[in-house]
Amino acid sequence: MTQALIDTDVILDFFLERKPFFHDSAKILSLAENKKIKIFVTSLSFSNCYYILRQIGSHETVIENLRKLAIISDILSVNSKSIELALYSEFKDFEDALQYFSAYQKDKINVIITRNIKDYKKSELPIMTPENYLKSIKDIIARS
After folding, report:
1. Contact yes or no for 25/10 (Cβ under 8 A)
2. N or C: which terminus of the chain carries fewer CB neighbours within 10 A?
């Protein structure tokens, strides 16, 4: 089973229904909900999503949506090792470095799904856009 870290931008594409990215992010989350893939989300993503979504929605609505996300995902901690590695890395974007090193410490994650591929140039893990990821697992999708 594919095990993927989902970057904050993909989650926000879904919650904000951002076109043209909404469909792919919705499909990925649906696959996770139906246990066709396993997704991981960092604790940092929950915080970032809350901050952005709260600007346009009520606390109750945002929390309910984040609860649903928590049910279908495994939550990775941004721990002191992640922070240390990010601080001394060559990543240009600190938030992406935190995401990456949180995923890197989890042996079973085999891909990071993001639309922000350029900030993951130093990654040793495969980095894919939602669109490319869905193309790569089309057999799983066909069975769902």
Report:
1. yes
2. N
Does a cis peptide bond (omega within 30 degrees of 0) precede residue 130? no
Q: Which residues make Cβ contacts (< 8 Å) with residue 77, sequence separation at least 6?
A: 42, 43, 102
- Note the pLDDT of residue 10: 98
Distance between the two ends of the chain, CA-based, in angstroms? Answer: 13
Per-residue pLDDT, 140:
67
* Strands 127-128 vs 38-42: parallel, antiparallel or unpaired: unpaired
pLDDT tens digits along 108-131? 899 999 999 998 988 999 999 999
Cα–Cα distance for residue pair 138/144, rounded to 1 Å: 10
CATH number of 3-143: 3.40.50.1010
pLDDT at residue number 106: 85
How far, in Å, CA of 131 to CA of 114, rounded? 10
Q: Are 134 and 24 in contact (CB under 8 A)?
A: yes
Q: Is the pLDDT of residue 143 over 70?
A: no
Strands (E), 7-141: 38-42, 73-76, 111-113, 127-128
Token digits for 12? 């926000």
